[in-house]
Design a protein that fits this description.
Blueprint (H helix, E strand, L loop, with lengths): L1 H13 L21 E2 L5 E2 L2 H4 L27 E2 L5 E2 L2 H4 L46 E2 L5 E2 L2 H4 L49 E2 L5 E2 L2 H4 L46 E2 L5 E2 L2 H4 L10 E2 L9 E2 L5 E2 L5 E2 L6
Parallel strand pairs: 11-12
Antiparallel strand pairs: 1-2, 3-4, 5-6, 7-8, 9-10, 13-14
Length: about 325
């Protein structure tokens, strides 16, 4: 009897413990050892599970939690304009790339100045901006991701072999600083636009928030001590009211090409009827007004014969047209 009991104890000690994979996973519910949690939320091995968008495990692709135009988030989360997954206004609001986007940012909870992320010398894998080019001669899209299709090299392309518009003008001289507009409307809630300036000599970013870092004063800066945009040209001629008979036939739009009746022109230059096109920051369906101060955008168009540049100023030549 003693020998039988000892034998049972030995078998119990030697028996291995198995971890069963549940099939589904997420960033907070990992897979069994040796498996990867794919961007779609399933466990497995190989490039489809451990490659780009992998959320956990022995990932070999992009950083977990990142996303892009062709890499949606798991769990019905929003992909923010900076390429990260989440479900708050910072992810689902302005610039949201996919997921349950709302198209309008939540008002700041404080009157303190909004600050952006600190720039780094290198960007995460597959990310880019106006000062960080892509590897392999790829295009940097308007949303800050590298690729070689029309979504990356077309409208809004920041650098690389762009096909949809001119690159930002370069200069060998010292970068000029934009002058502060003469408007008396001063922001009191941290938000701004072409007609509402920031307090304390802060910059108004292209997304409509006040701050003093490169994200606010660089590319797309609307007013304040901007470093990334040219001064608007001066003109002694009286602007004439242009006709708005140039109606879009290909789904794209801008200050000089309106959408068909009932559609809105989004801040990214496309026609549609959902909140992403008609929500905050977009042109809507309000009849446009003609610029009188050299600035354009947000339903303000340039005088006849002039183009509205990606920086929001009216003028002639490749830098504007």
């Amino acid at each position: 009897m003693v020998r039988f009991t000892a034998l049972l104890a030995l078998v119990a000690i030697a028996a291995p413990t198995f971890v069963l994979a549940q099939g589904a996973c997420s960033a907070t519910s990992p897979c069994a050892a040796g498996q990867c949690c794919s961007k779609w939320g399933y466990c497995g091995v190989g490039a489809d599970f451990c490659g780009d968008g992998c959320q956990g495990g022995a990932c070999s692709g992009g950083t977990p939690g990142q996303c892009g135009p062709n890499a949606p988030c798991a769990g019905n989360l929003c992909c923010s304009q900076y390429g990260f997954c989440g479900n708050t206004a910072e992810f689902c609001g302005t610039g949201c790339q996919n997921g349950p986007c709302t198209g309008a940012p939540k008002p700041p909870t404080s009157t303190a100045t909004t600050t952006g992320p600190t720039p780094t010398a290198t960007l995460p894998n597959g990310a880019c901006d106006a000062t960080h080019a892509c590897a392999g001669n790829l295009c940097c899209s308007q949303h800050g991701f590298c690729g070689n299709t029309a979504e990356f090299c077309g409208t809004g392309c920041q650098n690389g072999p762009c096909t949809g518009g001119p690159k930002p003008p370069t200069s060998s001289t010292t970068t000029t600083t934009s002058t502060v507009p003469t408007q008396t409307n001063v922001s009191t809630d941290g938000k701004c636009n072409a007609n509402t300036i920031c307090p304390d000599n802060l910059c108004c970013s292209q997304y409509g928030y006040c701050g003093n870092t490169a994200e606010f004063c660089g590319t797309g800066c609307q007013n304040g001590p901007c470093t990334g945009a040219p001064k608007p040209p001066t003109s002694t001629t009286t602007p004439s009211v242009p006709t708005t008979t140039n109606v879009s036939t290909d789904g794209s739009c801008d200050a000089n090409k309106v959408c068909p009746a009932g559609q809105c022109c989004s801040q990214y230059g496309y026609c549609g009827t959902t909140p992403e096109f008609c929500g905050a920051g977009n042109g809507g369906t309000v009849p446009p007004v003609v610029s009188t101060d050299g600035k354009c955008g947000n339903n303000v168009i340039c005088p006849s014969g002039q183009c509205c540049s990606k920086w929001g100023y009216c003028g002639y030549g490749a830098g504007y047209c």
